[in-house]
Design a protein that fits this description.
Length: about 400
């Protein structure tokens, strides 16, 4: 299965370019935070840098999807990669002439992430143009495996760079990855219909409204977006912040243990990604709910048992559930959303994810001031399972009623 797909040169270039670009993104994301703190010594200003990395997706995410639908995706991706090279290169240059300031770094971070708002939906929407439906589960799996592998590999590269060359050279590596990514995209063999006609801001707004109306009238996509927001909202704080705070209550080595748990999670995701295509040839919303129920089961598990070794086991369950849900979500969008709306489909999905993350961090962060972390974990896990299993039971009951009607007819 994997061998057949990897024999396709276009798919190989797509995966290689995407994986290398992801590595650069992860490294530069860390570098912006490291340099911000080195320049200012302020936790508040460093937090501001983190906000600059996420805010563009809430501001421009939907517009990025419209542009991805309007223009030829291959050309857009190459141009965006080439534009990012001088942007990150300017940080290195100013650093060495001792002219780098926090405000400049903040602006560059904002611009890089804004470009990502246009790059990511176009890159995702390009995949259906170079694969057939039977190949997509495998290619999505390989693409996600590379992305997860990069997140496991990046801390090792980061430690090496920090000890040998300094945080600024994260940007040097990032510039190289953008160059390699643009070359790989240039090598893709893809046929795109050239879209002609005048475009305007008013038409962009109309395009966003058009997709919103289409999504509301398409039950599967509407439900996918709703449950995506709900599940991610329930998970983000208890996974990214709650676990670290819980470990700080349980051990004096909370940061090391948290890193180990994240490593176990990453390794589990990689293995799961490689197995999933053999289990699920095609995917639907039911597949998404199966993954979400396993995901929620992991959260509930480490919330109930609330001990270091059980956090590891819970992370493994989450590492099985997340890729099933994630790959199902991508497959559903690629299969059900019309080609001319794919960019908007993926950008809407991204905006919902970032919005769910932001709301989760804000609300759960406030609740944690007077509700025990363990209670929040157990509650989130229960709600995730209830939503997922409830949907599956409702669908099964609905199918049973239809069968009964057909029988009596």
């Amino acid at each position: 299965m994997y061998k057949e797909v990897l024999l396709n040169k276009t798919i190989r270039y797509y995966l290689l370019g995407g994986g290398i670009s992801k590595l650069g993104d992860v490294l530069s994301g860390m570098a912006f935070l490291f340099l911000a703190y080195d320049l200012t010594g302020s936790k508040t200003l460093t937090t501001g840098m983190a906000i600059a990395e996420t805010a563009p997706y809430l501001l421009f995410g939907l517009v990025g999807g419209v542009i991805a639908d309007w223009v030829q995706k291959k050309k857009l991706l190459i141009v965006l990669d080439l534009v990012r090279i001088p942007l990150v290169g300017s940080v290195v240059l100013l650093y060495y002439i001792d002219a780098l300031h926090y405000i400049f770094l903040l602006v560059i971070s904002f611009l890089i992430q804004t470009i990502g708002c246009f790059f990511n939906p176009a890159h995702r929407a390009l995949l259906p143009l170079i694969t057939n439906e039977e190949q997509r589960t495998v290619v999505n799996s390989l693409n996600d495996t590379l992305s997860r592998g990069v997140t496991v590999l990046s801390p090792v590269i980061a430690i090496w760079l920090l000890s040998s060359y300094g945080a600024v050279h994260f940007f040097t590596i990032d510039a190289v990855t953008y160059a390699i990514s643009s070359f790989c995209i240039w090598r893709l063999h893809v046929t795109e219909v050239r879209k002609v006609g005048k475009k305007s801001v008013k038409m962009a707004v109309s395009a966003i409204v058009e997709f919103s109306k289409w999504a509301r009238n398409h039950v599967s996509i509407r439900n996918l977006f709703f449950f995506t927001f709900m599940i991610v909202f329930l998970n983000t704080w208890v996974w990214e912040v709650g676990m670290l705070l819980a470990l700080s209550e349980l051990t004096d080595r909370s940061e090391e243990v948290f890193s180990m748990v994240q490593g176990v999670f990453g390794a589990t995701v990689i293995v799961a990604n490689m197995i999933i295509p053999f289990v699920f040839k095609k995917m639907n919303l039911g597949t998404y709910m199966i993954g979400s129920s396993i995901w929620g089961g992991g959260v509930l598990y480490y919330g109930l048992f609330y001990d270091v070794e059980h956090f590891v086991i819970g992370a493994m369950l989450v590492g099985i559930g997340i890729p099933i849900a994630g790959l199902a979500r991508v497959y559903i969008l690629q299969t059900l959303v019309p080609e001319e709306m794919l960019g908007r489909g993926f950008s809407t999905n991204a905006v919902l994810l970032y919005l769910a993350n932001t709301v989760s961090l804000a609300l759960f962060g406030a609740l944690a001031a007077f509700i025990p972390i363990q209670t929040l974990m157990v509650g989130s896990g229960c709600l995730m399972i209830a939503a997922s299993v409830g949907y599956l039971v409702a669908v099964k009951a609905k199918m049973g009623r239809r069968s009964s009607v057909q029988f009596f007819k």
